[in-house]
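User: My collaborator sent over this chain with a note saying "see what the structure looks like." That's all I know about it. Can you take a look?
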Amino acid sequence: MPYLLFNRRVRPADRLAVGQTPVIDTNVVAEPGFAVNQTQWAALSALNTAAANAKAVASGLTAPNLTELQTHWSAMSATFDAWASTQAAMKRLGDDIVSYARTIVPQFYGRIDTLFNAATPDFAAIDELLAVAIEEADKRAATAATLVARIQPTIDAVTDFRHYFANVVRVPQTQIVLSKIGDLCLSYNPNDNGRAVAAHRTDTDIVTWWLVEPAEGRDGWYRFRTPDLQYVLCAPRDADSGDPAPVEVLGVGLPREEPDKEALQACFRLADVYIEPATFPGHTLDCSGNGDWNRGTPILNWEQNGGDNQQWQLTIDRVAADVQLYDAVYWVNDAGRPGLPQLGELANDWGKVSQDLGNLRDAARQVDLSKGSPDDPVFVAMSQIAFDIVESDWVGLANETQAASSGL
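Assistant: Without extra context I'll predict from the sequence alone. Here is the result:
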């Protein structure tokens, strides 16, 4: 990251000419906070936790349908090691900033302020004290720049990951097609009798798209829901019957006589080409009949027999490992969102203290050279900025750096 070091002491050309108005960066004083605020530091702490949790889950996963996401995650995950090793140094710098701002600054800047407000200001002494203050500010800004450079790969990797992740869908809509029978697929007409039927893939007046997602708490089993999340595919209610029975599509959230049993009826296993109900082992969804299948043909629960009318295929797959990977890295994508990019600005923001001090010294030299009086507007502004640096720049920096230390 580009970093500008404001060392005014070694640049005599920066001195203002007699009569030239100094530029005092009052915007820095007016800002509500420095660099990364407490909320953002808390987000960075959450990012660390989320990254550790995600690595524990994702490291053992193979997501066959989200290989690009896994690649992007691996690239980002590798940078967290460097970020973790930098945290300790960040914390040391934070502790130093807090100690300097809370103990040295009030006394040191108080001396400068006293000199400013004397009946006959000692500009040589002011200049000497400001030189020391600028050196201290520059030293800490340079340390910040070094640390920011070390964590820049993490910032870049997280930014790239977020851009990619924004286009990944956890559970995309899919059609469930009869791969051996023309263009027929599993469908449902909400205006019909609540039964699953076959339809053409191009039909638009009935439901031909589904969300197939892992059933919560039931490893290896899936639920088939309509895209509006209002209906779910269910096996026949009578689990003891061996007779063919219609597969139903029931409303979600409706009262059930036997909630646990009916929840199990909404679970299916993708067993090779079959879609096997949890309540009917060895059975599958079956497009009824021995031929002449068409739109409206009922979908039944039938014993698996290898027929073309039982061979189903999802147009877009999401197996459990895909969803587990998505869920694990989702929280990394979400955590730290308010804070991580701002870390890259720490060096520049800490450098603002040095810049303000340099402007302050230029103003003091201007008054000294012009033999201005303490009532001169330039002198008044100069004295005020000295006070504001103490009360705003350093105090604000100390408060937020302390938040940084606790966040790290």
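A starting point for your reply to your collaborator: Residues 8-170+325-407 form one domain.
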